[in-house]
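Why do we care about 3D structure at all? Because function follows from shape, and shape follows, mostly, from sequence. That is the central idea of this module. The next example makes it concrete: a single protein chain, its amino acid sequence, and then its structure expressed as C-alpha cells.
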Amino acid sequence: MPQTPEVQPQGALLVGSVNYDDAEKTMSTASAMLGDLLRRIPDGEVGRRFHWIMFQPDVLGQADGIERVGDEPRLLRGIDIRPLRLAEGVDAAGIQLPPLGYADAAIESYAIFRRLRDAGDIAAGVRFQVSLPTPVAVVSSYFSGDDRAAIDPVYTAAMRRELDRILSAIPHDDLAIQWDVASELGIIERASGYGRTMEAWWPGDPFAGLVERLVALIDAVPADVEAGVHLCYGDAGEKHFVEPADTATLVRFANAVITASARDLTWLHLPVPIDRDDEAYFAPLADLAPTSELYLGLVHREDGAEGARRRIAAASAVVDRFGVATECGIGRAPAGTTEEILRTHAEVASAW
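And the structure:
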C-alpha cells in the first residue's frame, strides 16, 4: 500500500514544455485534465522550442559576426545544435542579434489562449504562462572562453527586448513570466555539462554574480505580472548534470534571490529526484524564505501517483504547504506518456 501523505498538496504547475505538437492541444488538454489545479497554463513550448534552448544557435548564427563551430551541421530534429563563436576581429558590442523567437511564439500562443478562454475551455482568471531561459543558459551552453563575457550583455539585451515585446502585447493581468534556471545550478555545483566544467566568466564570486543576474530578470517583470522561477538540475536524456545531495543549494540560491529582489516572487519551483523520498532531501526547506506559491517537482512518469505520494509524505515532514509539478518540462518525455503524467498531477493534488 502506498504511504498516505500527511499534507495534501494544493495546486499544480506545468513547468513549461509538453510533448504535444501544437499549443492549442497543450492548453486545452491541460485545462480539461487539471482544471482548477492550475493558476496558469503554458503553450507547451511547441515547435522548434521543444528542446528548450537548442534552437537558439540557429537563431544567433544568422547574425553577422557570429559563426558556427564545426564544418558539418549537428542536427536534432532539424535543428543545428553546433556551438557558436565570435568571428575573428569582431567587436561583440556592434553585433545586431535577430529576434530570438520567444516573443513571436508567446504572442501567437496568447491568441490561441484567448480564443480557448472565450469559448470556456480555459477558466476565467487563469493566466497565460511564458517560460523564458536566462541568458546564462544560452551563453554558457553555446559560447566558450572570452566570447562569453563579450556576448553576455548583447544576448541579455536581446532577451530583455523579447520580454518587453511580450509585456507590450499581452495584457498584464493575463500574463505570468517564468525564468528557467538550470545552468546557474551547474555553475554553483561546478558540474560537468557538454563535456566541460560549468564555470562563470565574470570576476568575483560566481554565486553573487548569478544572484545579481537572476534578480535583474525578475525585477524586469512589472509588479502586475506574475513572476516565477523554475530551478533545475537539467534533464538531458532525463538525467541531471549532477545529483543534488539535498535541497540545501536550491534553498541557499532561492533565499539570496528572494531577499535581493525588489518585487515579490509569485511562485518558486524546486526539483525532486525520483529516488529521493527521504526526509533528509527536504530538510533544508525548513529555512526557505516565504513565497506565495511553492511547487515541488516530485511527479515522475516512471512511478506515477504511488511514487509521488511517497515523496509528498517525505516533503510534508518539513513543509506544510506546496503544490506539485514535474522536475522539468515534459516535452522530451516518450510519446504517449503525456496524459498519464498530467493525470498523476490530478491524482495527488487538490484544487486551490
